[in-house]
Amino acid sequence: MLEAETSTLPASQAERERLEWQTMFASVMGGDVLKSEKTRIAVALESLGDEQTNLHVNIWLGLRAKLHSRSEKEERQNLEEKRIRIVNSSLDELLLFRIPDSIRHDTDTIIQRVAELLRRLDLAQSLYPSLKAFYLDKPLTGSDAFQRRRDALNTWYNTLYHLRLQIGLLRRWTGSDTLDVTQPNTCKEVAIKPRKLSDGAYSSTPEIADGTSFVERVLKEDSLQRTFEKGFLVTLHAFVGSSRDAQINFAPLFEEMNLPRFEDELVPLISFPTKLAQAGLRMRLDYVKRLKEPDMLIVEQTMEDLKLSIGLACTLKRQYIDFLASDQGGNWLMPECLCEDYDSTILEALAIFFKLLHMKLKSAKGMYLKETDVLEAQWATLNDISSTVPGGSFVVAENLCSLVNKLMIRMTNYFDTQVRMTPEQIISWYGKVLDSVRLRYRKLQRFARYTLTQRFSNSAEYSLENTPLETFITALIASEHFLVYTESMEEDGVYIVAPVSLYNRPETISQIINEAYSVDDINAERERQDSRPFDDENEIYEDEEARYVLILSPRHHFLWTGPVMVLKLPKVELDAKDDRVRLIADGPQRRLAIAKQVFKEILEPVDEVGRHIESPLNRLPCIAEAQAHFPLVDRELRKIGRAASRLAESIVDSVHFVRSALRSAQGYQELMENWYLFASEHGQHAQRYMDRSSLLKFNRLLVKLAISWVSFICDDCEPTDRKTFKWAVNALEFTLHRTKRNILHLPNEQFEMLRAKVATCMTLLINHFDILGAKSMLEAKREKGKHHEYAIDNEDDFTLIDQSSAFSHVDPTTHLFWERVTRALQGREEQRAMNIKVGRVLDDEKPEDRSLVFLASSSSNISIRWQQGRFIGAGAFGSVYLAVNLDSGTLMAVKEIKFQELTGMPNLYSQIKDELSVMEMLHHPNVVEYYGIEVHRDRVYIFEEYCQGGSLAQLLEHGRIEDEGIIQVYTMQMLEGLAYLHSKNIVHRDIKPDNILLDHLGVIKFVDFGAAKILAKNQRSIQRSRRGTEWSPYNQMGGANGAAVMSNGLTGTPMYMSPEVIKNDKRGRHGAMDIWSLGCVVLEIATGKKPWSNLDNEWAIMFHIGVATQHPPLPEPSQLSEMGINFIKQCLIIDPMRRPTATELMDHPWMLEFREALLSYEEAELATNPPTHLPSDESYEHASVARQAAIIQEREVEQIQSRSPTTPSLLSSPAFDPNF
């Protein structure tokens, strides 16, 4: 480059100087002086490195000599001798290592040999100061063959070691040597109290505290979801993946050294998660099967639990399939280790899930407008099953279509019965019916037509009746189709033919035949539509491959001379008729259209110039353009179509009844016009999807509707009303559209009536025209805007290895050190295992342990089978979960208290004991029910009634309750609950919104009796108090709202305290303090503000209550009636001797008024729609509102258990099934 540049003469003096400088610089850099200096520096640096290396070697040698009490010279000589004796033999052994065939299946012996070889290699390496020195002395160790063999042995040994370690951990965790998660009596915890013998003495043999299986303990103490999210099972998954990689990467070397493979050893580890998930799912199914008369709360919770279990089972199966996938070299051959009934368990759970879904949809009246929303919310679970379980898509399609069909019939029955009744406010009622049905219809119709029909319609049917079979078979062979021999379906005369594009894709063929729909194809179609929103749905792209199979069922035999592929398939019920061809595509809509287009091109041959040649195949008739290829699914889709037609008839035919029923009412015309509009739009839309057999009859109904509409305009509407003009145009346009093709088919009487009414309408229109064109442009635009809005509104929406023997050092000093460490670790592990087996050791000198033994011996310490559900709330002293009682089938709230988290609180046990002693006395509908406790050495579970509605305080966070009737409902229930408590000589002492819960039916429940006081008959009291509000349920646990236990013994929340409590005045009628608190709660309900909300802090409130002579500010007259305000005044009387009792307050006029209304309501309900089983009078003797809620719940249970409707005959009289 330099020569090239300098060959050019410089153009100036500056360039000449620059070139001279460059020549001088190059001569310096290439001179002998610089080269000799570089050589000298390199030699100096190398000698310095040798000195540093020698220093490190000398330090290492000195340390070894010191450790073995030798001189450096003696240690160096000892090292040389060991290197000669050990190193070369160890390296040769590694290079020649191979397991004899005689011990090929003795894995334990092989592990010992490999461990011994690796130990000697480590020993050989320890004879050198560094790995570099080892490689320099023995160049063989740096070769690729040596390195790979050493890595393969290390990987094999470490994998087997950790594999057995993982299995050992699983055995300890489950308590089963076989990892049987359903084996009973696998819990190692010893009972707190010894078992009592028949002679009265106690057994000296430890007794197992819990005889349950591992899966039962998992579902009880934790959920399956959280169990699999824990680190151990996540590590398990990663370990299996790394083991697979190791087997694939080192398979040739493992085979060369004759080492056993990992697959058989991994079977227990890979199968454990699926076994646990299946056992958990099976337990949930057993629970559901035992349910009798479930209410809506149980149904919804069971559905959620089942969805989580099914989703987990599907996820684990996909992971299992990934583990089983073989590599291209065939180095990973994992045997099948999934239970044979795994898929059937999931499908059984799916069937029960649909049953629960059906119960939910047909139970509540408020569900009417949310039916399709509930169904749409299930697609994630349904698609998960369809893409994971063979045959899952068929079960999904069949059950979903059946469910929608029942909903369609249910809506038809609802419409018929609501139209054919005469309520007092008939116009308002019919308006509500119309709005409800219109919204429900559009949602359900969209889901049925555009979701189910389009998703499941993946096939077309052709007839071979008049087509030469040999010609058809020849055309298929010529177009490179091949015969799929299934060894099962041919015996029924059914044959499968597929295009050449599927010849090497047996999985695709199997999926097309066995699956009702493909989740992946549907998602891809949705993405395509999102990216190309303006594409024509019928447009076929040439670059898209058609994937389909043909199901042939010819009446006569045929000879196939084309290629044949053998694919063993189970027999599939396709219900193929004789002389039919069923084309099944790999997806609906677009995929089906592509397949049909390709099939059509096969049947229509062309000549050299592209002209179609006449052929018998051109006349192959298509019997069904789009249908589901599974007969059961297609049958359900057709049922949906018939139900939709029946609904359309009901809607169109209802117009005449509604018009007749409304004629005597005033101002019904606008409602009637809306009814005509809805019937006409719905009828015209439904007509597009009807079959020919129903279409003719339905057309007659539409013509009848048109005549009735025009008659309504002429006879029932005011001619001078501007709305009549608009209505007349709508009626005439619909009439013209309906009679355009049917005018000659009308009977003479109908035609004469139609002509007369149309003439009258035309006269009405002429009278509304403005001859001078005086209508302003603004008015015209306004009318046009209204029409546009109306059109939009009405648009159709449609073992472990002994490590000391494997890696122990031969040096005596080091050996002794590691022996001490190993013994210490083993001792600690044994102690930990003993703690797990026996549990925490109880000390009788400790008050808390004495209390724990007392709790364990309590009569309320029950033994029930239960499963833990979702987390509800947490506080200072524990967590609350939703749980299912597997014995009774009911939901519970389970409070879990872990003692290791509560160190330093010796009074906690006595507080639990005191509160439970109160709760186990109480049984009333307005007091939260206490079921019992389950005591363990490290925790206690408290079972109580579950209240879905939360606390009254949470309800009031949204503002005050404006409906006085609702206030009376809550007040009556609080009075009845307090009257019961006081009759049991119990004073709650902490009545406040946080301690008042609501169940799913709105029934009031008093909770939190930690501050309660039991009054003995001699009026001596035993106070049971607690610190804070740790026993407040759910989210109020832990004193979130500041309930106070003052140093002077005050118990309660200041703003709800009565004056006598603040002043520590012992006077007062029984339960007077609770009545004051009740008045404060009612006041807060009515105003939305806490009592004494005008004061700054709790101390100011306490001072004001103690010295004040008046009650807190009362509600305004606009917030509560005069009688309601007077009721609060009675509750807030300052003198506790004059304050009325709960029983006396139930006779207050405000409560008497409500009681009368409640009694009238009950009599009317029982007279019109009495439930089969009424609640017992004993249980609800003093709980009138709770009795009404029990009646409502009984009706709900009866509705859930009622039979489903069947499809009525078309165009028959409306039928109503009262059981749906």
From TrEMBL:
ATP binds at residue 895. Residues 1197-1220 are annotated as: Disordered. Keywords: ATP-binding, Kinase, Nucleotide-binding, Serine/threonine-protein kinase, Transferase. Residues 866-1151 form the Protein kinase domain. InterPro entries: Kinase-like_dom_sf, MAP_kinase_kinase_kinase, Prot_kinase_dom, Protein_kinase_ATP_BS, Ser/Thr_kinase_AS. Belongs to the protein kinase superfamily. STE Ser/Thr protein kinase family. MAP kinase kinase kinase subfamily. GO terms for biological process: p38MAPK cascade. GO terms for molecular function: ATP binding; protein serine/threonine kinase activity. Residues 1204-1214 have a biased composition (Low complexity). This is Protein kinase domain-containing protein. Gene3D superfamilies: Transferase(Phosphotransferase) domain 1. It comes from Amanita thiersii Skay4041.
